[in-house]
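Structure tokens please, single chain.
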Amino acid sequence: MKRVLLAGGTGFVGLNAAHAFSEKGVSVVLTSRKRFDQAGEALASDNELIGIEYVNLQDSAEVFDLYCRHQFDGLVFLAHTHQYARSRAANNAIYPILLNCLEGARSTGVRRLVLASSKAIYGGLNPPFDERATFPAKVSYKGTMVDKLKLPRFPEFETTVKRTVEMIAFDYSIPLPASTSGLAGASEKIAMDVVSLRFPLQWGPGYTAMGNQFSLVAHTAAGRIDSLKGRTGYLGLPITEFWNLLSGSPTSNVKDSASAIVTTMLADTLPNSIYNVCSGFSHIAREQLEAVYKIAPYARDAIGIDPGELDADGIPDNGFNSNLLCSDFGWQPAHESFDEAFSEYLAWLKVNAY
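Here you go.
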């Protein structure tokens, strides 16, 4: 693998994946829809193996030109629209972006696609949330464990989009049959492997959206946020409420997300086409906050959350883990504990501008 396209690659997962690829000697190109992307520009200027291209992924001509100029071996699809979409038109914008990237890959002989998917794909299912799960046509939580225990729900539109995107991507790994019109005698040969990585909540160096509890407390401990009083997280939920809802739910530090992307892209073979990815350390909300205060006791007043406000127990095990990724590739998380991962995140924030 000589050169990889990271479509939508200037988000924090893409930036970390770019670093990880460059450490393996692989050249990468990140795409950004912004005229000037501070994080992407800084990364590209620091490393000769990393480049940035300003491309409108909804414009098929721009995307095709990008593929022709670089001759990529691999594609990592990181673009998304659904999390911030508030209309059907905005929500559906992901489809032309995906199809343009897939058509560019198909027409220029890209060998492998790694799709960044989400744990949200399991919305409306009962555990176990493992790679063997199959999905009904309609997302519904009626009668599920989530419904009975009043656990957090993924928005139905997010689950639907993730499932649809994955189905479209996997379709590009299937050769088309021979034309029945007589105009073409042989089937189209597609030599593109497709693998989907399903990630839970992600956090760590480079995250700027301030949508999850780890980013908020880390930025506060690093002095980037003066106080968490009145701050909210994803979907406008109070931090303690959001944190309690996720107590016991697996998360992924971004280093693990990045290394899973690199591992599956560079693997000689893919024994499976779907892998769950998570870091595997403590998921209990109260234990996580206690670890934060142990690492940064000076930030207790600014964070302003008493550990007693957070759950000491987690939700029942839902079977979401990285066991298949570990067994197929010998993959291991970058950190042995939440404490270690959070300490690194905090140290990174103290010296980096973005």
